[in-house]
Write a structure and sequence with these properties.
By secondary structure, the chain is mostly helical. It has one domain. The protein contains four helices and no strands. The protein starts with a helix and ends with a helix.
């Protein structure tokens, strides 16, 4: 049995506005994943060499990996929310959000410091 059939058999149909809002949130996560992928590729392709050899590549790889992870988990989040709405349960908290926000902040700070050191 396919996942759409299993989903429709779970609980009751929620108000379509809530399902559309859930879909918009899914698309926002996908946009975030694409932005992370673009940032990683851009860092590798266009950034000048940083103070430590190989560090630019490592930071770029972390950004691309974060994009892949965000993309992979976006559907799971959408599905968990949809099932919760169908079963009239509270929506589950976003597990990825703290990791994503702190990870992007740490990577951005590292890039900032390394670019600053390279230009001194």
């Amino acid at each position: 049995m396919s996942w759409p059939v299993r989903l429709r058999e779970t609980g009751e149909d929620p108000d379509p506005r809530f399902s559309f809002a859930n879909e918009r949130t899914f698309l926002a996560w996908i946009r975030t994943a694409l932005a992370l992928l673009a940032a990683g590729i851009g860092l590798e392709a266009f950034a000048p060499p940083l103070a430590l050899p190989g560090l630019r590549q490592a930071l770029a790889a972390l950004l691309v990996l974060a994009g892949v992870l965000t993309s992979a988990l976006a559907f799971r989040r959408w599905l968990r929310n949809e099932v919760a709405m169908r079963e009239r349960r509270p929506l589950p908290p976003p597990r990825l959000a703290p990791w994503l926000s702190y990870g992007v902040a740490a990577t951005a700070l590292a890039v900032f410091v390394l670019v600053l050191v390279a230009n001194l």
